[in-house]
Amino acid sequence: MRVLHISDHADPLATPGGEFCGGQNVYVRELARRLGGAGCTVDVVTRWADRGLARREPIAPGARTVRVPAGPVGPLPRERFGEVLDEFCEGVVRLHEEAGGYDVVHSHYWYSAVAALRLADRHPVPLVHTHHSLGAVRRAAIGRDTADEAGEHFAARHRTERRIGLRAAAVVASSTGELTDLQRLLGTPRHALQMVPPGVDTTLLAPRDPALARAELGLPAEAPVVLFVGRLEPRKGWEDLVRAFALVRRALPEAVLVVVGGEAPQRRDGPGPLAALVERYGLAGSVELRGPVPHAATARYYSAADVTAVPSHYEPFGLVAVESMACGTPVVATRVGGLRWSVADPRVGVLVPPRDPAALATALVEVLTSGAAERRQACRERAAGVYGAERWAGDILAVYHRVAAAAGVE
Ligand code: UDP
After folding, report:
1. 183-198 pLDDT per residue, tens
2. Is 134 in the pocket of ligand 1 (CB under 6 A)?
């Protein structure tokens, strides 16, 4: 089966954790790799942002990324992708034609849905879509004050999210909450909806010896360690975490907070906003800013930590929570989006309200001072049982076969 993934801004081979790369990059790369391994021929089309990278680059056997020029060279904030969308869409259509047509097209995020819809207007091809994030839910959670939630942008996004739901042969929801949102907010018909939670690579994201991991990372052997992994977008709640951590230190004065992703530890232009906040709370000696690390290196951090904090205001799925569990490390997360399901079992972690540093601190102290061994076991079981990557890729492939058969492609 020949599959095209459209991943507008998220290059599957980019290093996540910086300003522009995160869960979608990891999701698309992992899925492409596994589908390639299952015998599919997979192309992932994305914007060619860095001309230092090849136009076409292998991801794994059977899977490659294809970069199409669209707009200026260099990174582009996600909310400005609309400026290059037309050129990107034409590049996607051209790719489909040059390739002699794909059997299934799977789009990711709403800009890619625009490209998929344009392609389907010109060529008969079954569409599968994963939203990754929903405009209406995001706006309700974080307000209208950012550029991408403002008037026209939001309206265009919402319209596209509705349209792709009505046009796609299948829409993949990552959690039961998203499934409900898609029906309620976008009117996506029930027959198109497929619940397929993302999986994580449990061979890569597997527990390491915590003492060894700490030694390798230069972290103290005995201190309680809280970990944050992710981009430093405001909606990730990192400000709440710094405030909460100041409270954690009152109960556990030896505690250390390790931040992976976001600001590089040494910036030429002086301390970034996170370092400045850490300084303001007098926490510079107990907070380690490690900057973005390659995905393969995250397992060592999860294994070294006693608890991973996911304090997001909005989190469509939240791969970090599941990755942490896969490494046997419990999670304290906010009760939002996909986290409400992934961290639902009280043995794997604690859910707290968003934007509440005091509640976050209480939960962190609770996990840091209670039954680690039992939690570690439950975390591993939940990750392997519910969020295994084999099951994920198998379920997605079954969706492709179903829509291809219905379209008469196979
Ligand atoms: N990540 C990484 N290196 C970093 C920071 C993050 O590999 O320095 C990865 C992390 O392991 C996860 C992804 O980036 O796979 C973030 O995904 P998540 O769904 O948690 O958040 P999103 O970026 O989609 O908001």
Report:
1. 999 999 999 999 999 9
2. no
